[in-house]
Amino acid sequence: MTTLTLSREEKVYLLTLARNAISLAIKGQAQPKIDVAGLSELLKADGAAFVTLTKNKELRGCIGALEAYQPLVIDVREHAIAAALEDYRFPPVSSDELADILIEISRLTQPRPLEYIDSESLIQLLRPSVDGVILTDGLRRATFLPQVWEQLPNPEDFLGHLCHKMGANPDTWQKKHLAVSTYQVEEFHEK
Fold this sequence. Notes:
- The chain is α+β, with helices and mostly antiparallel strands and 191 residues long.
- The chain folds into two domains: 8-109, 2-Layer Sandwich (Glycoprotein, Type 4 Pilin); 112-184, Hypothetical protein ph0010, domain 2 (Dna Ligase, domain 1), CATH 3.30.1490.150.
- It contains six helices and eight strands; from the N terminus they run ααββαββαββααββ.
- It has helices spanning 8-26, 41-44, 72-85, 119-125, 155-166, 172-175; strands at residues 48-55, 58-64, 101-108, 112-113, 132-137, 140-144, 179-183, 185-189.
- A four-stranded antiparallel sheet has the order 2-1-3-8, with helices on one face. It has a four-stranded antiparallel sheet with strand order 4-7-5-6, with helices on one face.
């Protein structure tokens, strides 16, 4: 990752912020104002992040942004709340289960287009466990974070599942030239 990495203190700050934001949102309480000006340069700089929630090692919610458009600290708070309450795949997180939820934050690099010739060259260019991948087909788009390679280590399976997530047939990546971009993440989570 070519960008500067977050310090341990900045990571703890973001994880604490995410947990507190989820707790307040579940209770329907207002979020406190964040004094962005008083934060470190990396926290107040525009940043894109995904917040992933797990319960008993199972996905419980995951929402984020692919491109930076607001301060990282605001991005993390918004996506923590959205992962807990707005991920359409799951019911909203309840206050009863919050203690069992673990929070993971993935800070993304700027996505870069991946130029490839055919499906075989696409497979060769992907870097399992390193690259997050974005597939785009017209108005349809989907991404998998680099962590998804742990469940889908085979590039063909990875791309097939990503096509399915996009709402296309799993073999679309083999039959059609899709727009492909890759990015990397700085991932950290609660212990």
